[in-house]
Write a structure and sequence with these properties.
Two copies of one chain form a homodimer.
Chain A: E1 7-14, E2 17-24, H1 31-35, E3 42-48, H2 49-62, E4 67-73, H3 82-94, E5 102-107, H4 109-121, E6 127-132, H5 135-141, E7 146-151, E8 154-161, E9 166-170, H6 179-196, H7 198-209, H8 218-236, H9 251-260, H10 268-285, H11 291-303, H12 316-323, E10 336-341, E11 344-348, H13 353-363
Parallel strand pairs in A: 2-9, 3-4, 3-5, 5-6, 6-9
Antiparallel strand pairs in A: 1-2, 7-8, 10-11
Amino acid sequence: MANRKVFERLDVSVPGYRYPIIIGYHLLGDSDALSQYVAAEQVMIVTNELVASLYLHELKTSLSGHQCDVVILPDGETYKNQASLNLIYDALMTNSHHRDTTVIALGGGVIGDITGFAAATYQRGVRFINCPTTLLAQTDASIGGKTAINHACGKNMIGSFYQPAAVLIDLNTLLTLPGREFNAGLAEVIKYGLLAGEEFLVYLEEALKHGLRVNGSEILQIVSRSAQIKARYIEADEKEQGSRALLNLGHTFAHALETYTSYQRWLHGEAVAIGLYCAALLSYHMGIAKQSLVERVACIMTRAGLPYTIPKDIDLKQLRQFMQLDKKIKNKRLRFVVLKKPGECYLDDGVTEECLHNTLSAAVEGENSNG
Amino acid sequence: MANRKVFERLDVSVPGYRYPIIIGYHLLGDSDALSQYVAAEQVMIVTNELVASLYLHELKTSLSGHQCDVVILPDGETYKNQASLNLIYDALMTNSHHRDTTVIALGGGVIGDITGFAAATYQRGVRFINCPTTLLAQTDASIGGKTAINHACGKNMIGSFYQPAAVLIDLNTLLTLPGREFNAGLAEVIKYGLLAGEEFLVYLEEALKHGLRVNGSEILQIVSRSAQIKARYIEADEKEQGSRALLNLGHTFAHALETYTSYQRWLHGEAVAIGLYCAALLSYHMGIAKQSLVERVACIMTRAGLPYTIPKDIDLKQLRQFMQLDKKIKNKRLRFVVLKKPGECYLDDGVTEECLHNTLSAAVEGENSNG
């Protein structure tokens, strides 16, 4: 992996704007690849303590011709808040960064979201480059221009849509990613398989069956295909007025599970894995998907080393309550993304309480033949 | 004025988006005019203590069919900060405002800027209606989608470009505007005259010569022509990549004067008046404008009851330092908007320190034949 020169380039077009996603190896150390997206002399890198210890030196070396300032935040979702945002603003101001500065995110989804929001709002928007270092950020969070911080009353409540100048995905960073986080990233990848259809889903099933190695040959293919699938949804509906909401497959369940457990029990991807299984079960209970689809989702999650059932200690009535916070709610009705078969999803606001109850009950650990 | 039914409608088109500016009388009390721009059931009005005492009741009555919540901020530029922004976010969250809410600004430039920024960033953007109540906000701040709060280190440093769903300019609100604030608003209007050319400038000179009354017949014409001129710049260059920067005529000087005096000495429009005179002097010292243009600018400011010279107690070296914070700086070079004659302006990044020094010296009170 270390010496491969292969890379993929994917262009994303939204109204009035076009930018590339570059996926490859050793991009953080590739001065030429980086420089072409930096606007002028000034650069501000935002990262966290953990990622800084691994990759900051490499990135700074690549930018050695620039005035390169750095903000290092503590690691974790807890720090995706106003205080961290202010640290970034303060660093930009005290180092006299002008409107032609370039802000670079080096890290996972938390770093990408908060840095993107800082770039979107510093002097009404400066150039932003996202260098995601987790599988989840590489396949999901870094693509699509959603930036945000959390508010005490809710996750991602303050933010904006702001597209980067470029997304540079250095696959080498996956080598240092903990296994549990890698697997969590696979949940969103599997979601793309379910959204896009048989071809990619079967590819994933085969890759996982033979054991997907983080330095194996399939990773480039998996990351670039995921990015491509997400990018097509963004291009069709940048501001989530319609079809982009399908990317929320499994997420009504996942967000409720995360809020219920105060984001302490599962990584986001793990909650999504359970959410995808619930979405398949819901579709089955609504009579639109076959039982075999439910079994297939359970099987692929097992292969990916991911949970998929709801643990017995979760109170289903409380879980149902937490679903009421969903951002997709329209005219006070919940809207679920349901799945007829891989490649065929749609939004449904007509799910009955009974059907939802049966779905949640059937998703509980030990309540199903695959559990 | 009170019973006039006349109004003007002006449409602004930016990439992918179009919205109206409605200029007329009694718009705040016109339930039909307002309702057509409100998205759904929920409305959040943001205003300040002074404006609330004058116009909040009228606006709330017009919105009586809606869930209408209100945030009342203290009056003044001091409160255009993160703390006020958080008050708005908190009110939106605690009153469970969904993504289909409508946020309405009722006030001057401070209220419009901060409310627009809250709307731009709450749940990644909700509907925004701007009801400006000062001449400055009606002719400048409310038009063009610039939203912002101040940072301890600089004015408008945190913000975004976010276009409203509509701008409703109720000219009746000018009746309660203090004379000094009305005159300050005229500075931006005069700037449009200098940018747009002889026709509007001569119209203004004549109107001011005969005494412009706040309830006179020229006001509708002046506000709508100003809005139109600004809107054309916005349409050509929404994000200020190029020609929109010309709207900064006089502002490099004005912002430095304001920062130097901690925003305590002049109203923004008053600083702009001095800045416009400096811009004319600079253009003269560069040999591109005639002496008569400088005299003409001094004369029109006098007619409008505005200052135009730099007071003697201002240290010109320090003032020069404050210019270095200008947002138009590119590759560390100051860029000035210079004026050949009314209707002919351009950006110049080749102003020498000597020329700048001569300009500032000549602008000092008593140093010129018109002072």
